């Protein structure tokens, strides 16, 4: 009798409870200060939830590799990746697609920055004077903080970074690269131009201590990448709805936090040159 009553109670509770819709979860590579990222992407989560009429949640990760793993394991269905991390993630998840990128991401650049004590003048080519200085990349998985700067270092000196510089480090993110070079911990560093310009505008960079010495040629970079199985999980046409919501994002304050002027359509083919560059210097096979 007690078992029957228990079953009846559980059944009545289940019938009375609303059906819980699945939560659409996304993440982003940790390329800048963690506090700024949480503020930015919580705003994105609120925006997407309203546009898609589903619960949307942003989950932060501690590394580029963790963002890729979360995407691979279906812990997240959408991610804001850099060019390289996007290529790596899509290779691991068949059917996944790059669906949107910032207008600026079609011609992204890296700044090489130097502490004043290095005595390196700004140049239209990568200054040979960086040789034998101490140097820091950003994250090992960063397009703008590692892949492209390493490519141009190898092109200029016909040698690996460890053979060019007296010491090579990896700061972990672009904000930290700026802090390390600004403090003189490293004489030279490679940084995402958008993070640099955003921090200079905010007045958080001592431009008397650190300055730009070279700008790389442009390349494709950040993009929103989505898993290929989202329509099965969230309903027909969901992928297109997500893409349209991202492209329609027009809140000036929200866009400024990226910073981007707008988002435009993207495709996997846009990042072929990134994959080929990574293969050329041995970052991926």
Task: Give an account of the 3D structure.
The structure is a single chain. This protein has helices at residues 2-16, 34-52, 64-72, 83-92, 143-157, 161-164, 174-182, 193-202, 230-234, 238-247, 252-257, 272-280; strands spanning 24-28, 56-58, 78-81, 97-102, 110-115, 134-137, 167-170, 188-192, 210-215, 223-226, 263-265. The protein has 285 residues and is an alpha/beta fold. Strands 2-1-3-10-4-11 form a six-stranded mixed sheet, sandwiched between helices. Strands 7-6-8-5-9 form a five-stranded mixed sheet. Helix 3 (64-72) runs parallel beside helix 4 and helix 4 crosses helix 12 (272-280). Mean pLDDT is 92; it is low at 1-20.
Please provide a brief summary of the model.
The protein is of the alpha/beta class. It has helices at residues 2-16, 34-52, 64-72, 83-92, 143-157, 161-164, 174-182, 193-202, 230-234, 238-247, 252-257, 272-280, and strands at 24-28, 56-58, 78-81, 97-102, 110-115, 134-137, 167-170, 188-192, 210-215, 223-226, 263-265.
Biggest sheet descriptor: 6 strands, mixed
Contiguous uncertain segments of 5+ residues? 1-20
Radius of gyration: 22 Å
Distance between the termini: 65 Å
- The gross shape turns out to be globular
Multimerization status: single chain
How many β-strand runs?
11
The DSSP helix count reads 12
Which percent range describes the beta-strand content? 15-25%
């Amino acid at each position: 009798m007690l078992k029957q009553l228990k079953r009846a109670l559980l059944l009545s509770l289940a019938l009375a409870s609303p059906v819980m819709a699945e939560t659409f979860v996304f993440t982003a590579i940790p390329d800048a200060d963690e506090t700024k990222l949480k503020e930015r992407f919580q705003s994105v989560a609120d925006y997407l939830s309203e546009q898609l009429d589903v619960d949307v949640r942003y989950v932060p990760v501690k590394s580029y590799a963790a963002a890729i793993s979360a995407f691979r394991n279906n812990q997240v269905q959408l991610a804001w990746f850099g060019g390289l991390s996007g290529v790596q993630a899509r290779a691991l998840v068949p059917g996944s697609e790059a669906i949107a990128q910032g207008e600026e991401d079609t011609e992204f650049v890296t700044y090489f920055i130097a502490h004043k004590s290095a005595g390196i003048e700004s140049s239209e080519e990568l200054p040979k004077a960086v040789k034998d200085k101490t140097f820091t990349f950003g994250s090992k998985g960063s397009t703008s903080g590692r892949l492209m700067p390493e490519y141009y270092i190898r092109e200029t000196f016909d040698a690996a970074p460890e053979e060019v510089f007296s010491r090579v480090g990896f700061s972990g993110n672009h904000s930290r690269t700026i802090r390390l070079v600004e403090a003189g911990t490293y004489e030279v560093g490679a940084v995402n131009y958008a993070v640099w310009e955003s921090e200079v505008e905010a007045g958080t960079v001592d431009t008397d201590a650190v300055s730009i010495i070279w700008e790389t040629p442009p390349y494709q970079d950040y993009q929103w990448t989505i898993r290929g199985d989202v329509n099965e999980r969230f309903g027909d046409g969901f992928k297109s709805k997500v893409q349209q919501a991202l492209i329609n994002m027009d809140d000036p304050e929200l866009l400024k936090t990226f910073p981007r002027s707008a988002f435009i359509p993207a495709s996997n083919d846009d990042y072929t040159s990134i994959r080929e560059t990574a293969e050329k210097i041995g970052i991926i096979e």
